[in-house]
Description:
There is one protein chain. This protein has helices at 13-36, 46-52, 63-73, 83-92, 95-112. The chain is an all-alpha fold. Helix 1 packs antiparallel against helix 4. The longest helix has 24 residues, at 13-36. It is elongated, with a radius of gyration of 17 Å.
Amino acid sequence: MASKTQSNFHDFLPLMAEKLGGDGLIGELCNGFQLLMDRNKGVITFESLKKNSALLGLQDLSDDDLRSMLKEGDFDRDGALNQKEFCVLMFRLSPELMEQSQFLLEEALRQEFKDSEFSLDED
């Protein structure tokens, strides 16, 4: 998904997480899923994403970008995104939120293991 549109992307997910908390953020992601999904199929298809993407300010994305988004999140390879796949994709597309999540996980593990040397880094 390396297009010129991507460079204009502003990641609001960390701000939303801060303002809404975990449950509120998940609720908003579910609302976003509802906006983009095909009502008859209950999943986000290429057609429903293309039709409804303007609702989220994504009207400038090309068909290739939209297909890439679907492919990136489609873990079961059925050609569509279910709600879980969509939420996971949104987290994966937010580098700052992923960094915060890793930091919080490491902190929790440090506490669990009494501040011993612990890191999730693969170095």
